[in-house]
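Course assignment 3, question 2. Fill in each field.
Student: A.L.
Task: Predict the tertiary structure for the chain below.
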Amino acid sequence: MKRGLAAAAAIAAALALPATAGAHASLSGASPETQSSVGVPPTDVRLRFNTAVTATSGAIQVLAPDGTVLSGTSRVSRDGRVVTAPVSRITRGSAYTVRWRVTGSDGHSPAGVFTFGVGVKAPPPTEAVGAGGATWKDNVSRWLLFAGIAFVIGPLAVRLLILPGPLPPALERRFHLVTTIAAFAVIDVGIAAFVARASNALQLPGSDLLYGDLQPFAEKTRFGIAFLVMTVGFAVVAALLMLAWVFDRLELRWPALALSLVLVTGLSLSGHQGTEPNATALSELADWVHLVAASVWVGGVA
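Answer field:
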């Protein structure tokens, strides 16, 4: 009993210590709010952090659509938690970009970007001033994401619909191995794709990207929501496939396949078909059918 309690205490400590040591400054609030639309032009931009920070005179930059800097000298409050920069020449009918960078007490330098509109809708952070467009990394990540999904859906469809009966152990093990590895690959690639897309807007080097503020991308962009839902969803798929393998509960493959088919919509909705102005529900459905058919074909043949 004592050994069990000691082990539990050790595990709790191990879980608590990294969380404490890993705490770093992060944005907890902004005025104007991130991705918001305000009716009156603001006279300053204020950023609130969860802990005290230090900042240079250019910690906050407010940019007009043409890239003109509209902000003045940034100042830090007495408690170090609020950084403020005065702004001028903000007019109704335009959207503006806020880029910020501070230094936390742990020496890390979190940074971020968001937009706000004055009397107009704020554009997504991927369209902020200075943001880079899609690169070869985005294209590669999307192809890898499709390949991972195909190697989940294709083998599952073949096994459940075409080969529903008993199979030789070696072949059954191959179905288990391929689909489970592919599900975990989708999770990893999904995270990498999301970070790569966000980095185009943040314009940070790889070492600083670890402390970039990804919240506006995760919560207020279509691609961010789609990728995160897919990542969490395929974690459930991977769990179902692992349980089916370990406990020989092959019926768990059915909900894994059904959930995978639903999650394919994320790849469609986060792509050009779901974001172009003339996209309709019918065109998105057609794109989903195309992706499912391609996944079954590619994954099934392989």
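Instructor remarks: The chain has two domains: 27-127, 136-301. The chain has nine helices and ten strands.
Grade: pending
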